[in-house]
Write the structure tokens for this entry.
Amino acid sequence: MYTLLPEIVSLLFLGYGAYVLVSRGVNRVSASFFALCAITFCWQFAWAILFQLEDEAAAGLVARTGYFLILFLPTSLYCFVAELTRERGESMRVAASAAFAAGLGLLLVGTDLVVAGTYQYKYGFYPRAGPLLILHIAQTVVVMMRALVLLYQHMRRAISVERVRLRYCFASMLIYFLAAIDYLCNYGAGFYPPGVLFIALSLGIMAQAIARHHLLANPMMLAATVVHEMRTPLATIRSQARFLSQRLPELIDGYEAALAQGGRRSPADDGRIAYLRGLGQSIEAEVQRTNFIADMVLANARAGSLDSGTFALHSVRDCVQEALTCYPFEGSMRERVRLGRQEDFSFYGSGSLLVLVLYNLLKNALAAVQESDGVIEIAFYQDGDACRLTVSDTGRGIPPHVLPHVFDPFYTTRSAGTGMGLAFCKRVVAAFGGKIGCDSREGEFTVVCVDLPQAA
């Protein structure tokens, strides 16, 4: 009777972990989720076996085997959250947690310091806590709290669609955390471990997040799919706009000829005719801006798999000129951009990707100076062993509490932003072997500096 629930839950976890791995493909997130499911399966399945044993020696062996895997459960959950939130900076902490668990595992195998044998409840044998089990419990609390903080921080800066997914994950993690109440049974609390019920509920919420809200989906890849489908209608609109540009002036000329022959002219006709003359060009300019945004989204989505096999030597001057020529400036904003120090150098990488980096930096700088009389300066020169490209503006600047996070994925302070622009820039520059940094003073200036290695 007591073995049925842990058996069902363990099998559900293993099956769902395998389903995610197969359906979502093998990647860092799905693999870490599968590891979490596999360890939980082993934990619950070991307890299902333990409850059926009558031999104390065999029960002690099963208890130690199950607990050896339990020691790594907090780390596996922490690793999954770190991958889900794309916090690569957590890798050292995850490794330290795993090393700590491995050390306790060695003590578990050779001593009674972690698990001191078993004793029997009404439903069967259960592991007895050793004096050092408290270290594992403390580790669990610390690691789980850190994972919840990561989720909460990522949830706050996520875009709306991803925020819904992360709320499900956050709720699931809180419930999973409650399963730690089972540790009381290791110290002799005489009740059937309720942790398995919390795990079952946590599994249901996680299943809802993954199956219904696509928790493991990459939001940028979903956006890229939508953007890709926009290409055909945009091409059609551009073709029709060009036809208007060619034919509409002929119709207007005929209309004005008719007016010259004595037709009646409305006082508003002059403004309407001027608007119609430029209508085709206006539509084509909007299509160009939309295609520009589409290119940015697609580049952001693909930045995680940059192909260095296509890298070659490129002139930074040519990239700057292309960016300034092709960027869809609005109104007189182009006049706000000037060139500073210009010393051309070659870099090894992708010219088109560096142009996209400049697009992102220009977009941010233009937004910063839009409500002021600020200007933007682009400079490129050699500084010692580094080849430097800078984009600076005298706009509103960046608040001190925001500045450390500007390169974090999905971090944004704009209601319509995605927080992927500077993260994309960082990945591209890193792929070139360079570094990117930002310095700013609120209300005064912002400088983004790209340092690239000298081309051999």
User: Anything to note?
Assistant: Residues 219-223 have pLDDT under 50 and may be disordered. The first strand starts at residue 115 and ends at 121. The radius of gyration is 30 Å. The beta strands are 115-121, 124-129, 312-315, 337-342, 346-349, 376-383, 386-393, 435-441, 445-453.
